Amino acid sequence: MGIRVEKALQQRVELCYRAAIDCGWQINLDGDTEPLHHYRVGLRKCRALLKLYGDWLAPELAQALVASIGQQARVSNRMRDLDVLAKAHWLPQEATEEVANWRRQCFSRLLIALGELTRERQLVFALLACSWKSPSGGKQSFKRVTDKVAMRVERRCDKRLKSAQASQRAEDWHRLRISIKYRRYLKELCLPELDWQQDKRLQDALGEFNDSCAQLAIIDELGNQNRRQWLQDAKEILNTRVKTQLQQLNNLQIV
């Protein structure tokens, strides 16, 4: 029998988490935005593995890790959205300094939030050092369980694609994006013999739509606070972009 599922998962989650935290220490305001991106990706990979294989892990362990890692990821959401907005090619010159000021304010809040998460990081490292043996995992091999997980992921992707195409709701497209992302991470981390480049392209297409929706939410929020003309113009641009992207997503093939 090959490596047990709990052991294989523990190794992969720890590797992804340590890589994420290493990138977290490199996050800065005026330099490269890649450290923040990789911090978020590393944490997402951890959560994806824990959720995909949750049925074969001790429930209390998996739930505690998912909750803590999720909390560590969410504090960076706003900063990431503003990073994307700052790079938007349609952003008028008059808005550049204003967006930069929002980023500075958000970065200050992010640093405070990351500092306050010290205990959460300590908790995760402590749980990563524990034994992950579980009655749920039994003596099943990692490969056998991974085959089951892969089939489950495929069914979920198909179901969510049909749901999104039928409803045309942004929420359903976002759920599909998460499922595609999980499928990619599963291949990348647990099924290296499979090509995940197509999943990456799908994830990028769905991610662009998600970015447009996130930027629109920011513009809506700020537009309610002041009536600058560029905010109204940006809202029109983003609404048009969202409609165009929705039309393109309707032709999406996920196989």
TrEMBL record:
Listed InterPro entries: CHAD_dom, CHAD_dom_sf
Highest taxon, organism lineage: Bacteria
Location of the CHAD domain: 1-255
Name of the protein this chain belongs to: CHAD domain-containing protein
